[in-house]
């Protein structure tokens, strides 16, 4: 079967996922830059794969092409797979890094973040109300969905207010796998420079924040990479979750009515959004530690593997009418937060943000409506993330 070339710009990610699923549970794909990998779409294979110790995320140990020098810093996704953080670590190294970062995402720490989440939500609501005076059109993504997560994660990290806009701008560029190599490189250098300065500052003047924690326990490179990971992963995914949930609710008035009446919970809305409109489609990359087999397909030692996180929620063998948004359905299975050793440590915080923000938005503006419910709301750039790029609306 001919190799399917993934669209680096991510113009229609769920349609691409459907094409991948038609090709079978494990299929050959070409990533940006022409690098080939095995794409895994089937839930029954993804779950065990994500916990298999014979599948690693450490390219520096287990990607033959990188070790042989065939993959160079010019490859568009080079920084995705070579950064020294828990995102790409394996085994004992991963456990050590994760243990440090996870201290900021305990149940107690998440509860302690509730006032911050509420404050960020309140500020976003006030900004919406001000922008929407007199029936003016507002962008719900830009003014609401995109502001809350960055404020929350920056509070958790300990980022000063005057650096937050620049960090968000850099993170937006880094998540865009279709951006030029020059733009990606410039954003990475700028962000690492800001985070390196913060790590050094927190060592001298530590506080009760995540950067202070990693600065005290990890060397510079790992501390900076971990802060980088938390910033990008900790807000980009939640922005897309919020934007997609808002769009789905405003285009499904029957579901919104059921939520308002108490028939459907906000938690169910969040999970159904994660299933039907996953905020992440692909996460590069994983590597075979030894020769192995996935779904009857032999995978050679050192071969790259890409987990298609956007696929399980659209599996018609698991979900009846998988494209239908129905929070009342019995099975809302998804892998939006991953599984196994690399399961997202920020899941409880992301859920808290989403439920708090959605409830507050629809309580504050009961007559909220999209300007063009059936219009084109665009797609966030890049093949990693998924969500509408704009949500023009009036508050009513």
From TrEMBL:
Keywords: Heme, Iron, Metal-binding, Monooxygenase, Oxidoreductase. The keyword Glycoprotein does not apply. The keyword DNA repair does not apply. It holds the Pfam family p450. It comes from the Bacteria. Belongs to the cytochrome P450 family. This is Cytochrome P450.
């Amino acid at each position: 079967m001919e190799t399917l070339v993934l669209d680096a710009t991510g113009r229609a990610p769920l349609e691409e996922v459907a094409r991948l699923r038609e090709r079978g549970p494990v299929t050959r794909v070409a990533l940006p830059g022409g690098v080939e990998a095995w794409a895994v779409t089937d839930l029954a294979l993804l779950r065990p794969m994500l916990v298999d110790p014979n599948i690693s995320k450490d390219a520096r140990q287990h990607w033959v092409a990188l070790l042989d020098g065939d993959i160079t810093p010019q490859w568009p996704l080079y920084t995705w797979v070579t950064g020294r953080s828990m995102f790409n670590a394996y085994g004992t190294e991963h456990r050590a890094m994760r243990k440090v970062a996870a201290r900021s995402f305990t149940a107690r720490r998440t509860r302690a973040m509730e006032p911050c989440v509420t404050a960020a939500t309140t500020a976003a609501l006030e900004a919406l109300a001000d922008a929407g005076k007199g029936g003016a059109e507002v962008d719900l993504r830009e003014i609401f969905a995109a502001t809350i997560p960055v404020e929350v994660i920056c509070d958790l990290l300990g980022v000063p207010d005057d650096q937050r806009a620049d960090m968000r701008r850099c993170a937006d560029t880094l998540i865009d796998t279709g951006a030029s190599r020059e733009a990606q490189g410039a954003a990475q250098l700028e962000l690492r420079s800001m985070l390196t300065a913060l790590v050094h500052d927190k060592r001298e003047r530590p506080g009760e924040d995540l950067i202070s924690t990693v600065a005290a326990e990890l060397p510079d490179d790992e501390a900076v990479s971990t802060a980088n990971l938390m910033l990008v992963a900790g807000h980009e995914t939640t922005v897309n979750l919020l934007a997609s949930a808002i769009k789905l609710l405003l285009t499904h008035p029957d579901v919104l009515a059921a939520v308002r009446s108490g028939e459907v919970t906000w938690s169910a809305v969040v999970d159904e959004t994660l299933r039907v409109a996953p905020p992440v489609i692909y996460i590069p990359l994983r590597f075979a530690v030894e020769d192995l087999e996935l779904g009857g397909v032999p995978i050679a030692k050192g071969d790259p593997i890409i987990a298609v996180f956007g696929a399980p929620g659209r599996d018609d063998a698991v979900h009846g009418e998988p494209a239908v948004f129905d929070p009342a359905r019995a099975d809302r299975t998804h892998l939006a937060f991953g599984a196994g050793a690399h399961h997202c440590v920020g899941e409880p915080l992301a859920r808290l943000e989403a439920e708090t923000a959605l409830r507050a938005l629809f309580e504050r503006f009961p007559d909220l409506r999209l300007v063009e419910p059936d219009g084109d709301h665009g797609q966030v750039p890049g093949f990693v993330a998924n969500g509408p790029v704009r949500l023009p609306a009036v508050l009513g």
